[in-house]
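Hey,

Quick one before I head out. I ran the complex with 1,3-dihydroxyacetonephosphate overnight. Inputs first:
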Amino acid sequence: MLDQTAIAAALGEHYDLAPSPAAAERQSALYARMNRVISPADWAIHAPYVEAINRLKTERNAVILAHNYMTPQIYHGIADVVGDSLQLAIEATRVEADVIVQCGVHFMAETSKILNPAKTVLIPDMEAGCSLAESITPEGIAEMRRRYPGAPVVTYVNTSAAVKAASDICCTSSNAAQIVAGLEAQTVIMTPDKYLAQNVAKQVPEKNIVWYDGSCIVHEQFTAQELRDFRGWNPDTRIIAHPECPPDVVAEADFSGSTSGIIDYVTRELPEKALLVTECSMASNISDALPGVEFVGPCNMCPYMKKITLEKVLWSLHSMEGAVEVDPEVAEGARQAVQRMIDMSRRLSA
Ligand code: 13P
Ligand code: SF4
């Protein structure tokens, strides 16, 4: 892939990407979804990219699947589908377009490819990784199986295809407790997120859950003490935490759920003040739709998610570079683990 300067120069030869109040005006309906969090001057910078991407999407017969942690200009400006990991995986099974552009991290693009081997799946930055995915290899799964013979392995989707293929079933943050509770085995191995596993262990006390030693660099930074302090200063704040946070952090929260679970909770409850103990774009993406909710307190940025920018999305659609490939044998093993999760999740919530 070209470097940033070369990409900017190459794009400049094909598109007029200079800040444009006229483009901003033409795209004012999209801007209305994010005008509390993006200034008019910044929108004039983003709007030419948004127009070029949306035009190119039609020409390429492409669809953009975007995770809830994308910036507002991606989430509201160019995405066709937004959601948490489970929703994006399910939507990937329904895509009819020839090309999927995954605005998220690499494991999400790999999951889309596994579910759509015949389609082109592009990731705008191959280095958009994930600390959880990087924490474990198939050998790590084999080691857990040696330590706990016969126990099924439930692997978080935040992993490589090879790790999924070495596992029995996948889970996401929205169905982990359901999947673990639905298995017949008494002892269940959860990989690679130790905090998600410990949080599930509290929800499913009848199981003996053992875990691998991985963690999310974004969520492990929150502390129970900072939440207690925050609640002391702002007693009327609703605290909502992602289950990748340590269990003592989740214990301080009024609600814990996947990224979409968090959005649903705030939309339903409409608290006066909400502290989302997760990635910073979450509050930005929903604050225009919820003007009565004041989003307060600390949040952390995911450096991997933030590698995805409008410029890189435009480049991937223009050049068709960044296609994700998965070895067919590995893909088939991983597909089975993901499909088992989707089927079990559907069955249990029917
Ligand atoms: P969700 O499945 O809740 O969207 O989580 C994905 C993720 O990477 C959170 O850090
Ligand atoms: Fe991975 Fe954490 Fe970033 Fe999610 S927030 S992609 S789990 S590093």
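DSSP finds 18 helices and twelve strands in the chain.

Talk tomorrow,
K.
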